[in-house]
Design brief:
The chain is mostly helical. The protein folds into 2 domains: 33 residues; 36 residues, no CATH class. It contains 2 helices and no strands. The radius of gyration is 17 Å and the shape is flat.
Length: 72
């Protein structure tokens, strides 16, 4: 598959996904971020940095822990 063909397929898939989210959940995927608790742009992060960021978010939002603390 050429790059152009892959890009076309990916754009079509994105449009189908957006239509599904609009139909079933009532928001514009990729434009309306209000339904989400966290949006993490990983474009400039390495895999390890992404993992660390997500662990920090999970600890703070769901386990109410601050870095360096263990609430048991």
């Amino acid at each position: 598959m050429s790059f152009e063909e892959a890009l076309t397929v990916l754009k079509e898939k994105d449009e189908r996904s957006k239509a599904i989210y609009k139909k079933y959940y009532g928001f514009d995927l990729g434009e309306d971020f209000s339904p989400f608790d966290v949006v993490l742009d990983t474009n400039i992060l390495s895999a390890n940095e992404t993992f660390d960021a997500l662990c920090l978010v999970i600890d703070r939002l769901y386990f109410k822990k601050q870095r360096g603390q263990d609430t048991g």
